[in-house]
Design brief:
It is globular, with a radius of gyration of 19 Å. The chain has a six-stranded parallel β-sheet, with helices on both faces. A five-stranded mixed β-sheet has the order 1-2-4-3-5, with helices on both faces. With 348 residues, the protein is an alpha/beta fold. The protein has twelve helices and eleven strands. The two termini are 33 Å apart. It binds phenylalanine. Phenylalanine binds next to strand 3, strand 5 and helix 10.
């Protein structure tokens, strides 16, 4: 735990053991320079305490870069609720209310929204004690809803720029896309891709998602480990992080990696590994910024859904263009080019 915290460049972490359930709660505040931070709440079980803390720390850094790109006036943060193996789903609401109280106690330093394992309805429960510091409640409760659809729209529009760069044509018509994970972002992305005429294959661990997309829509589904080596134009990671690593990168048979998952690279060297393979990588925190821009924009700027969609598309396409131009001009990785842009915006 010491080395994890020593290596982290963020500010501080609030840690609480929830005695009633045995869950650990981590709120990692990466930068409070703007007096307010934002980040989703990830709720799942982890192999151990360290793994959960590490996820919170790394995800908060990703949020810092993501929010720097967005210019919404929030610093980066992330919360992880690490559920015990014997977690009783009946205690979920009370746990979320106690977590909401932690957010309340931070007095506006931390705003949250949904992430892996939490939904807009969970945000409603958290807001019972944590309001007004909760984004993405259900529309019935006055919120902008799940961030999944806005994230997917952003990923799709970023893919168009990547296609233009690699194939000389923005259209996804006829492009073969492998979507890894058909959850809240992946499933909405699949809809956009199908409407655009792409040839979609997907993989998922969840039986429900598999049945829906394979049996109802007739999409091809591949088992988890096979996903990396499927021959395709675009590989779209939309599940958990760390999927691009020394073992998987050599297997890729795609031209572009562009997806909604956070922290896709297992380690910084992976950006160079992807570049060496001649694959274009759309930096995760750029192409997946749509959820944060969309939900925060609708709730703090009063954007309509239509305005939100045009803001998400314009912002991501513009930054993607800049990144691809910078990376090509300087012969650096797209990750390094994105970092330069984020850092410039952070210091502005
Ligand atoms: N899951 C979102 C993300 O990683 C978290 C988020 C949702 C942040 C809504 C802000 C508002 O970007």
């Amino acid at each position: 735990m010491e080395s994890l915290l020593k290596e982290w460049n963020g500010e501080n972490v609030v840690i609480k053991y929830d005695h009633a359930t045995g869950a650990w709660i981590f709120i990692a505040l990466y930068s409070t320079k703007l007096n307010q931070t934002a980040g989703g709440t990830r709720m799942k079980s982890y192999p151990d305490f360290q793994a959960a803390l590490q996820d919170a720390l790394r995800l908060s850094e990703g949020m810092a870069y993501k929010l720097a790109i967005s210019g919404l006036g929030f610093g980066g943060a992330k919360a992880v609720i690490s559920l015990p193996p014997d977690f009783d789903p009946q205690s979920r609401h009370d746990l979320l209310r106690r977590y909401g109280q932690m957010i309340q106690n931070l007095g506006g330093l931390f705003y949250t929204g949904s992430d892996v394992g939490t939904s807009a309805s969970d945000m409603d429960i958290i807001a019972e004690t944590g309001a007004p510091y909760v984004f993405g409640r259900t529309p019935a409760a006055g919120g902008a809803g799940s961030s999944g659809p806005a994230t997917a729209l952003g990923v799709f529009s970023g893919m168009q720029i990547a296609c233009e760069h690699v194939f000389g044509d923005r259209s996804l018509n006829g492009r073969r896309v492998l979507v890894q994970g058909a959850g809240s972002v992946g499933s909405a992305l699949i809809e956009h891709l199908r409407s655009a005429g792409a040839d979609v294959t997907f993989s998922d661990v969840d039986e429900g998602a598999i049945c829906r997309f394979r049996d109802d829509l007739g999409l091809q589904c591949v088992p988890g480990e096979a996903a990396y080596s499927v021959e395709c134009d675009i590989f779209a990671p939309c599940a958990l992080g760390g999927v691009l690593n020394a073992a998987t990168i050599p297997q890729l048979k795609c031209r572009i990696v562009a997806g909604g998952a956070n922290n896709q690279l297992a380690e910084p060297e992976d950006a160079e590994r992807i570049k060496q393979r001649g694959i274009l990588y759309a930096p995760d925190y750029v192409i997946n910024v749509g959820g944060a821009i969309g939900i925060v924009g609708m709730e703090t700027q009063g954007w309509t859904k239509a305005r939100m969609e045009s803001e998400v598309i314009a912002e991501i396409q513009d930054v993607m263009q800049q990144i691809l131009e910078t990376a090509a001009a300087k012969d650096i990785t797209t990750e390094a080019a994105a970092r330069q842009i984020a850092e410039k915006r952070l210091s502005a």
